[in-house]
């Protein structure tokens, strides 16, 4: 159940119908439901989504997704399963490509771009010439009796990954709660009321796909379908969605595809979906068996168990990072009002919410074994979505995964490496038949079938380094984890990506450099209607990273010494970056001026972010030129373009400008009411890019050092973050007051030298190894840099003298703490309770209270994971509970101090409730 504080119950307004979304922006009602600090990780609304998908709330377990509309009398769960894609396995490679390559290259090198593009369009396009779309499964619709309602409150709680709804109708308080469980692979819908026998609903499936509906048994409905045909490829992914009701009290029947529940006190509807997609070349999976076995397994588990298993799984990931950027009364408004009014308000907590929303969306759309998050994550209501809701490699897919390692969700990255592995097969064929080359190649898009050829026309698709960019992520991920097995398993993909370019780079006749030809600087014409070129700057930057990654991985794995020598020789002949006549980073080999000065792609700053080839201290001239490039391109852009620019400005260490770009993103034309980023239309890359950008403002590690608080804006004067990750294997927590660092707490995964850069080190500071209480020896290579030898498993604390320490080892502090517990208010069928925790000898902070109520429900709530308070009386946690008031019973809660997710299991403190 979602926590409903008494204040909400009193303040909630009447339900209405959500307004349709106008693409150029939307408006929020002005009346605001009052929220409280307790709800800081909650998206909250006082109206249903109506028919507006961008007001519905996303839930997901990586594979299954749903958009929950929260309409009082007509609930809609728009359903997705991440392998339901149009078409089926296909081989897109164009066998004519290799023969035409020499002539295409000649045309490009002699600046005959139009004829070159024509020839590419004739000989290099994949077959089909476009890729295939990710598609919806359909909808589960739940009809409730119509009636007048009041006290409507709709939420998405990021700390529990649960969409909830409550309202009062006919004197009865109704609750709805929906979550997608990863451990049990079902979507769980829970309907309750505070009066016995008050829940009566019917449920049906529908879909825009080719489907049939049925009632396989007396408590289940089914939707059996097959994905659509597209681009001449026959739809072949079969899917089965099942919904089964389990009721307490009342009756459940199912016939003719309609599920009827009447007179129940509570109902759990389990939604299970199976798909026949096995992998990119096999679609004969037992989709019905999968759907049924998941459902049968989940049915055997009590609702409370389903919920606590979901919470344990989700919170183990989500709880690794907490963030507090300060809070103002602006956070008391509903989420849509906060977005609509962001420009005129100081609402630092919204940055924390958007940051955590990105992490929530990644956990919900990308788990080990699932498909990677596509352009819309896993949430798509269409059979023909914009840009096919696939994987665009020239900006969007990489951006989706920028926050994966930095915000401590490394596991969520793994589906990308599976996709890369598939592309090493399909892309090897494309490399061979279209380039006569070894290794593998992927161009600017791919899909569930791992299409690797050129698509959409030369102007957009003739870009060779999509696979190369993906392959660089193998090395980057390894830098965070140090996982040798991972590196060994993925090294062949890295080597194959490099091999392709060793085989295909050609010497630029006028300059002598080795360059890609044909390629482009993504989607930007350098002359009218001409984007095709040789050796665009972005390609050269990506290839430097790829060759370095491959060579260094080969070294670490002690393999391929000869190849390494060749790769390094090729690398040294790549064109260097150049400063153009306008003081900018040149985007092409020639100093051309882009045809669209404000184009959304700023590809040639790949070298600034995500790469590290342009740095403030290492390449000061290029750094200045990168600044100038961004000034020339301007701040405006699509959602993802703004998000990338937050990262760029963070890397330039310009906190004010990074924050300005963040604010530009929080506008009604760039953020939907449900906080989905708008290109427009909805594209999830902007969400992930924003989360990454905020992480980059707080911690950077791209330059063989941890740079702590490199771009902290004035707008977040006092705050705290825990659990960020840095390359080299560091987990970092930081606290600051009035713009000045109080402390950094750094845990090292591995032995080695650590370089720490921070303004703090130019002032006075202390450093201690918290694990053995020693004072590490340090050197000061620069005035703001401290260097020390760190040991695996040790935690180090650098602090401003006098700053209150945050305990990081938490097994003793909570045990020494005491707590008192009291019911502070009650209402029909529920109550609100309060706990006051008193620290032991040491002050404690950064704590979580998990409430476990007598019927086994776990409510992880209030300032869960984010509230930080220091001092002897640590503070109060409130929880609301809708259920029978326990009379004199015993209620327990777990208490965690320190960094959530890093702690040992919390001790359980038992209190008497009355
Ligand atoms: C690239 C971008 C577009 C859009 C699409 C999915 O083509 O240039 O802006 O994000 O991918």
From TrEMBL:
One annotated GO biological process: carbohydrate metabolic process
Source superkingdom: Bacteria
InterPro entries: 6-hairpin_glycosidase_sf, 6hp_glycosidase-like_sf, AFCA-like_C, CBD2, CBM2/CBM3_carb-bd_dom_sf, CBM2_carb-bd_dom_sf, GH95_cat, GH95_N_dom
Stretches assigned to coiled coil: none
One Pfam match: CBM_2
Gene3D superfamilies: 1.50.10.10, 2.60.40.290, Golgi alpha-mannosidase II, putative glycoside hydrolase family protein from bacillus halodurans
Domain CBM2: 810-914
GO MF entries: alpha-L-fucosidase activity; polysaccharide binding
PANTHER family in the record: ALPHA-L-FUCOSIDASE 2
Protein name stated in the entry: Large protein
Species: Paractinoplanes toevensis
